[in-house]
Automatic annotation (TrEMBL):
Transmembrane regions listed in the UniProt entry: 48-73
Membrane topology recorded in Swiss-Prot or TrEMBL: Multi-pass membrane protein
Biased composition (Polar residues): 152-161
Region (Disordered): 18-38, 79-104, 143-193
UniProt KW Glycosyltransferase keyword: no
Keyword terms: Endoplasmic reticulum, Membrane, Transmembrane, Transmembrane helix
GO biological process: ERAD pathway
Keyword Transmembrane: yes
Gene name, Swiss-Prot/TrEMBL: UBXN8
Native species: Sapajus apella (Brown-capped capuchin)
The protein's name in its UniProt record: UBX domain-containing protein 8
Taxonomy, superkingdom: Eukaryota
Length: 284
């Protein structure tokens, strides 16, 4: 009986468990996908995060490209500015060099004029003046003056002697002290008259330009049929004696050959011509 009492509670429990297991609803088994979905983010959030990451990556790439491009442009601009500065410096340097060269050339020219040209011109003028005074019997003008109250007799004697020597060398009949104004009239008559200057529209007309030693240029029109001697008459007319000066062509540079009876056309003056008036070389 005791055994029945002790076994009955266990049996009753077993029976109750079996009854509960039979009457209870079955629990569905859990799958692996449901267990993993509880440990990760949903699909929408994941796509959003990927999109944001791509945007950040694109922004970083754009920032890198912009920085590289900006640095390259800045370096290019700086190189151009450097080149412009170098060009400006070179231009300034060249201007300074040219200015110095011009100043140097100007100094050389001024020294040449002062040391060479002026003395040469003064010497030529002095020789011409001496020869002119000797030809006109006024050599006394070349001598230096005397103080008042000095050796008047000596100066008078030397003056008369120089006049006599000058008159003898020039085959003059009388000393200069006895010259008078009417005696100069034959010399003036020796200068012939020039033919009338033709008009510009006339036929067979040439213009002759005469370059004088002073640098001035005189122009006059002549007919081609005029005698070539008219050129020397023109020289005499403007104050250049044929015994002291000669004519030459400008190019090629050669003396103008003039013979009696030849016209301007015969000596080659058929178009407008430039002639150079030169001083003859004086033989010692």
């Amino acid at each position: 009986m005791l055994h029945r009492m002790t076994a009955s509670p266990a049996a009753s429990l077993r029976r109750g468990f079996d009854y509960n297991s039979q009457t209870a609803s079955p629990v569905p088994p859990t799958s692996g996908a449901d267990s993993t979905s509880r440990n990760h983010f949903p699909t929408g959030i994941k796509d959003f995060l990927l999109f944001c990451g791509r945007i950040f990556l694109l922004l970083a790439l754009l920032t890198l490209i912009i920085s590289v491009t900006t640095s390259w442009l800045n370096s290019f601009k700086s190189s151009q500015l450097h080149m412009k500065e170098e060009e400006e410096k070179n231009e300034k340097r060249q201007k300074l060099v040219r200015k110095k060269q011009q100043e140097t050339q100007g100094e050389k020219v001024s020294r040449y004029i002062e040391n060479v040209l002026k003395p040469h011109q003064e010497m030529k003028l002095k020789k011409l003046e001496e020869r002119f005074y000797q030809m006109t019997g006024e050599a006394w003008k070349l001598s230096s003056g005397h103080k008042l109250g000095g050796d008047e007799s000596t100066s008078q004697t030397s003056f008369e002697t120089s006049n006599r020597e000058t008159a003898r060398s020039q085959n003059l009949p009388k000393p200069f002290t006895e010259f008078s104004l009417p005696a100069e009239q034959p010399t003036r008559k020796e200068i012939p008259d020039l033919p009338e200057e033709p008009t510009v529209t006339a036929e067979e007309v040439v213009t002759v330009a005469l370059r004088c030693p002073s640098g001035s240029v005189l122009r006059r029109r002549f007919l081609k049929s005029c005698s070539s001697q008219v050129l020397f008459d023109w020289m005499m007319r403007i104050g250049y004696h044929t015994s002291l000066y000669s004519l030459s062509t400008s190019f090629p540079r050669r003396p103008l050959a003039v013979e009696g009876g030849q016209s301007l056309e015969d000596i080659g003056i058929t178009v407008d011509t430039v002639l150079i008036l030169e001083e003859k070389e004086q033989s010692n």
